């Protein structure tokens, strides 16, 4: 047990070292070295995480305390790592999927200069470091340090090709929306500190009786506001589609598998707190459901391969929040895990397509790629099956546990969620068929260039496809005679007291009907899109979906324009006239005064004598009367 | 004789001197008016000294009586020295510019 504590600090330290080496040595390292260092440190972290995972599986939890960050009279905040089932599971996901994406990036980013290449790996390593801090943190403050770090790295990586001003605007948007959420998070932390005097997870969860109901509702709501910013829920979700401006492996790692799951991790970690706040859970459920539905409808009409996947991510995150809202924390964490696999697979697959099409991203110019990009096609197909929820792939198990939890809670919610799942299947298979089936719609030159990607890109695809297929078997429900190993594994951290009350027959019926509906939707998509011809969108509803329900325009008119008007007002009135006026005014007064006083020096002796006489007179009067 | 007459005469002489200094253009006339002011002050000092000698303080200790009269000597000496220097300056100016008009001599301007 001590063994683990002795080397658990290496897990985040290695990516940090990778960041420093690649960042500081970017002008002198060769591309090969940068790639090896960048990916190698993550591989080592993964191996260490495996060791930690098996140790924790044996039933041990560890709390490592290193030093005190803040040590004042009222409270201490220490730099602690908490290694328990939840964090070790997330460690595996982050380092495992992270390593595959690093490996993929060595080939994908090959066209960059040596120093930009090293900069990319430095940022990626910094991101993994921050994310590891986030999941290993033993109190809310360390979690927040990692939280901020991933927000920063998201900004750096989205704006990686910084010479394009649209990309930097997208990066700014992501960072600012994250910050709005962070304010909520900080307020919650301050509230906790005020009421309990500690932010350690163990201490907070042990002392919940000291908090009143308003306290708990307020803290959980504010934490959820933080999660909305980080995990792209309504109303702070519009940054995620714009974040597709970054390189595709970045989208895969940050905006599919890891950063956006930070909010969910935080809520899953605080499950004890949330179980005591049913009002917040209702709110989370409805917001998650609304986000899932909204994003799914938008994805139906998008024509950029990455935007479809981005909205798909927002939609799946909505599903996960739906699970959190119904108290089904295990299902949420399960879906996070499977989603990391198949969404990273889908993003990397789309990256492979973009690479083969030489940076073309519009699916209207693609089609018929399956003959030339077989591995990409097969892995992408497996990913689509997984996300749609076809048994026995992983997506089926995780999505079904979410849906069953929703059914028990509220039948209407279940109906809307099922509808959204059908939409998911529809738009994903639409994407698959338009891109890979049918006739190629691009130019002759593009068709000649289309090629399968190098093995550094296809090997991660294959590994992720295998994982997407088999990952569901870690939590086979008792329904099928399974052992629910994930539930048992996470039970020290997540007390899922809520056992399903439905009969087996009902569960079979629900699962079966969902699968049948989804298969029907997939075949409808097949017949509609297998020979796709792009056409202009004519219906009004279609146009609304294509333009993302005009949410960005709404935010622009309600928030951005007034803010810019206020800023312009301050600039012209307060800054230019007020402050500059005062500063320049002092100079002007001195100038004017000196000009007037200079006139006294007339050179006329009579004037000088007059002034002398007047001065004496004044002194005389002052002396007499005062 | 009342002290009022002496004060009145001295003030009148002094103010005539001041008006002269401020108003006249000829430098030598200005000098004469400065002398006038100095003499007015001398007159006043002597008058007060006499008044002081006849007052109760002066009658008890006769040594303080002549304080002001000695000061008059000082003023006369200073006036003489100043006239010497001032007239020398005027003679130098006249040699250079052939006028003694003070309005003409504004080289100190700017």
Descriptive overview:
The complex is a heterodimer of chains A (626) and B (110). With 626 residues, chain A is mainly α. Chain A is 73% helix and 3% strand. Chain A has a two-stranded antiparallel sheet with strand order 1-2. In chain A, strand 1 (62-71) and strand 2 (76-83) form a beta hairpin. The longest helix of chain A is centred in the C-terminal third of the chain and has 48 residues, at 551-598. Chain A is globular, with a radius of gyration of 30 Å. Chain B has a single domain, classed as Helix Hairpins. The model of chain B has no long low-confidence stretch (mean pLDDT 88). Chain B is elongated, with a radius of gyration of 18 Å. Chain B is mostly helical.
What's the oligomerization state?
heterodimer
**Radius of gyration of chain A over all CA atoms, rounded:** 30 Å
Number of strands of chain A: 2
The ordered string of helix (H) and strand (E) elements of chain A is HHHEEHHHHHHHHHHHHHHHHHHHHHHH
Summarize the structure.
The complex is a heterodimer of chains A (626) and B (110). Chain A has helices spanning 2-7, 10-24, 31-57, 85-108, 114-136, 140-158, 165-196, 201-206, 213-230, 239-242, 248-257, 262-269, 271-275, 278-299, 305-325, 329-356, 374-388, 394-409, 411-436, 444-449, 455-470, 485-490, 504-529, 540-546, 551-598, 605-625, and strands at residues 62-71, 76-83.
């Amino acid at each position: 047990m001590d063994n683990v504590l002795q080397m658990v600090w290496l897990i985040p330290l290695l990516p940090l070292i990778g960041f420093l080496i690649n960042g500081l040595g970017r002008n002198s390292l060769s591309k090969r070295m940068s790639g090896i260092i960048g990916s190698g440190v993550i591989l080592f972290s993964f191996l260490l995480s495996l060791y930690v995972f098996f140790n924790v599986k044996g039933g041990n939890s560890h709390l490592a305390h290193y030093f005190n960050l803040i040590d004042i009279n009222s409270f201490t905040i220490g730099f602690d790592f908490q290694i328990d089932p939840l964090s070790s599971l997330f460690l595996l996901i982050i380092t495992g999927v992270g390593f595959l994406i690093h490996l993929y990036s060595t080939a994908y980013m090959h066209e960059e200069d040596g120093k930009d290449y090293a900069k990319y790996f430095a940022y990626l390593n910094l991101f993994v470091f921050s994310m590891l801090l986030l999941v290993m943190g033993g109190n809310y403050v360390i979690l927040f340090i990692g939280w901020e770090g991933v927000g920063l790295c998201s900004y750096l990586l989205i704006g990686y090709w910084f010479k394009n001003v649209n990309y930097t605007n997208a990066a700014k948007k992501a960072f600012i929306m994250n910050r709005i959420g962070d304010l909520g998070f900080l307020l919650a932390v301050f509230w906790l500190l005020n009421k309990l005097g500690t932010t350690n997870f163990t201490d907070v969860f042990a002392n919940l009786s000291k908090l009143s109901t308003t306290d708990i509702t307020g803290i959980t709501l504010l934490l959820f506001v933080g999660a909305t910013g980080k995990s792209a829920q309504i109303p702070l979700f519009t940054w995620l589609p714009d974040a597709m401006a970054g390189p595709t492996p970045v989208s895969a790692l940050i905006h599919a598998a890891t950063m956006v799951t930070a909010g969910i991790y935080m809520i899953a970690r605080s499950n004890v707190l949330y179980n005591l706040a049913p009002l917040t859970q209702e709110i989370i459920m409805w917001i998650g459901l609304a986000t899932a539905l909204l994003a799914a409808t938008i994805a139906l009409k998008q024509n950029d391969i990455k935007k479809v996947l981005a909205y798909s991510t927002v939609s799946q995150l909505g599903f996960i929040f739906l699970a959190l809202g119904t108290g089904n924390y295990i299902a949420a964490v399960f879906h996070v895990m499977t989603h990391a696999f198949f969404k990273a697979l889908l993003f990397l697959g789309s990256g492979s397509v973009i690479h083969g099409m030489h940076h073309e991203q519009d699916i209207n110019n693609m089609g018929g790629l399956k003959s030339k990009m077989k591995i990409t096609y097969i892995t992408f197909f497996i990913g689509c099956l997984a996300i749609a929820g076809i048994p026995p792939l992983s997506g089926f198990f995780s999505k079904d546990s979410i849906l069953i939890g929703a059914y028990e809670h509220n039948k209407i919610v279940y109906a809307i969620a099922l509808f959204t799942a059908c939409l998911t299947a529809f738009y994903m298979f639409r994407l698959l068929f338009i891109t890979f089936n049918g006739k190629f719609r691009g130019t002759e030159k593009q068709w000649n260039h289309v090629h399968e990607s190098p093995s550094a890109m296809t090997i991660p695809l294959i590994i992720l496809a295998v994982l997407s297929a088999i990952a569901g078997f870690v939590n086979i429900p008792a329904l099928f005679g399974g052992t629910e190993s994930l539930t048992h594994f996470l039970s020290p951290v997540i007390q899922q007291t809520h056992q399903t009350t439905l009969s087996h027959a009902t569960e079979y019926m629900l699962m079966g009907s969902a699968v049948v509906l989804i298969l029907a939707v997939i075949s409808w998509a097949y017949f509609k899109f297998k020979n796709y011809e792009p056409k202009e969108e004519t219906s009004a509803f279609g146009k609304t979906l294509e333009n993302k329900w005009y949410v960005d325009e709404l935010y622009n008119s309600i928030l951005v324009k007034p803010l810019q008007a206020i800023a312009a007002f301050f600039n012209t009135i307060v800054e230019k006239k007020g402050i500059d006026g005062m500063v320049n005014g002092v100079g002007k007064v001195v100038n004017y005064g000196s000009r007037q006083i200079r006139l006294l020096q007339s050179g006329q002796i009579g004037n000088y004598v007059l002034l002398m006489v007047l001065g004496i007179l004044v002194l005389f009067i002052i002396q007499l009367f005062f | 004789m009342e002290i009022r007459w002496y004060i009145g005469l001295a003030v009148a002489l002094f103010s005539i001197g001041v008006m002269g200094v401020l108003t006249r253009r000829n430098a030598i006339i200005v000098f004469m008016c400065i002398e006038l002011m100095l003499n007015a002050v001398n007159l006043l000092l002597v008058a007060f000294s006499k008044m002081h000698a006849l007052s109760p303080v002066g009658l008890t200790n006769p040594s303080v009586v002549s304080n002001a009269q000695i000061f008059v000597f000082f003023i006369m000496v200073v006036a003489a020295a100043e006239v010497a220097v001032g007239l020398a300056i005027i003679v130098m100016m006249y040699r250079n510019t052939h006028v003694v008009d003070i309005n003409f001599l504004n080289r100190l301007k700017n």
